[in-house]
Amino acid sequence: MTDVDVNLLGVGTALPGPPITNADLTARFGLPGAWQDWIDEFVGTKSRHFSVDLATGERLYTLVDLGELAGRRALEAAATDPAQVDLVVMSTSTPDQLMPATVNMVADRLGIDGVPTYQLQAGCTGAVQTLDLAARLLSTGRYRTALVLGGDSSAKHFDISASLLTMPPEVQVNGMLFGDGVGAAVLSAHPAHGAAVLRHVVTRLEGLGRAPGQVVEWFGWGDRASELPPVSEDFKAVERAVPTMTCEAFEELLAVLGWARTDIDFVLPPQLSGKMTARILEQLAVPYAQDVSCVTDIGNTGNALAFFQLQELLKLLAPGDRAVGVSIEASKWVKAGYAIEIPAL
Questions:
Q1: Spatial distance between the Cα atoms of 39 and 43, rounded to a whole number of angstroms
Q2: What domain of life (predicted)?
């Protein structure tokens, strides 16, 4: 990627409230018992976390709340003081406000000031885009330590008083797939013996002439009475496109790095749902790699998910190990991937 090693020093994550199981979800919305079985069987996600109280609709956590917590945990894991951070990048599709930017509010909470901050409006590939942007900036030599974050609070887009039975399928599916959370990581251009090294990152828009697979609306005073659903997803289109795009991104990373499939120790697949992850892993066919997945237990947390995977990966990586992660965004079809290794001793 560059002549400068970009080291992944530490990762932190934050989830709001207790897990919401499929039983909790179906009971809250008065759905027939068969729905729980359907979610278990065809979606494969067992639980997720919401920033709102499912019983009352009260908002319990903001994205800034979760960002502060994830950021503090990442800095602690990296043994890095906030004063050492000289670059902050955050990605989200659901900022607390359009302005001020959520990244600046998180930085303020963490006591970070006087540094460049960037906020990327992105979907599921946003976490990889933060890695890409931060790594490129670190490679210039102008910056030494970056805090990158990604997160979403999707629950605020759902009307928990509404009946899922009356909603069209493209709206129903979002309540089953998505959860809230924020992840963060500390990257450094300082030499760090034994640290995981970010070897390559790729992000690419491939949506020319293709209809969006997911749409998230944002309403203001002028259109807040719009009849458009706040979130909708063409799940069939996602099912068709994501496995193929994943394989393409995976192959591209291996080709750039000169790695063979048998060189890969860990694979971090896209995390749309438990069932989709299983399908993707089957198509990737990486014979000796252990997959690192978390979507079954926390749901699709959008911009945060890659950080949850990376947090688990760092517990497993040993010197000489190599890992490849892929993320796919369906909103306008973006594919992204990254490669990490700990150099052999």
A1: 5
A2: Bacteria
The pLDDT of residue 215 is 81
Check residue 33 and give its pLDDT: 67
Q: List Cα–Cα distances, 115 to 66, 112, 166, 197, in angstroms.
A: 21, 7, 48, 24
The DSSP letter of residue 52 is B
Are the beta carbons of 213 and 241 closer than 8 angstroms? yes
Q: What is the torsion angle, in degrees rounded to the nearest 10, for the CA atoms of residue 155, residue 203, residue 206 and residue 228?
A: 20
Domains 6-188 and 196-341 share a fold: yes
Q: Residues 308, 13: contact at Cβ < 8 Å?
A: yes
What is 6-188's CATH topology? Answer: Peroxisomal Thiolase; Chain A, domain 1 (3.40.47)
**Residue whose token pair is 């799940």:** 235
The two structure tokens encoding residue 151: 């997160």
The CATH superfamily label for domain 196-341 reads: Thiolase/Chalcone synthase (3.40.47.10)
pLDDT at 188: 96
Q: Mean pLDDT across the stretch 97-110?
A: 96
Q: Is 343 helix (H, G, I), strand (E, B) or coil?
A: coil
Tens of pLDDT, residues 296-325: 899 899 999 999 999 999 999 999 999 999
Q: 26-40: per-residue pLDDT in tens?
A: 777 777 666 677 677
φ/ψ region of 242 (left if φ > 0, alpha if ψ in -120 to 50, else beta) reads alpha
pLDDT at 320: 94
The domain locations on the chain are 6-188, 196-341
d(CA 66, CA 149): 10
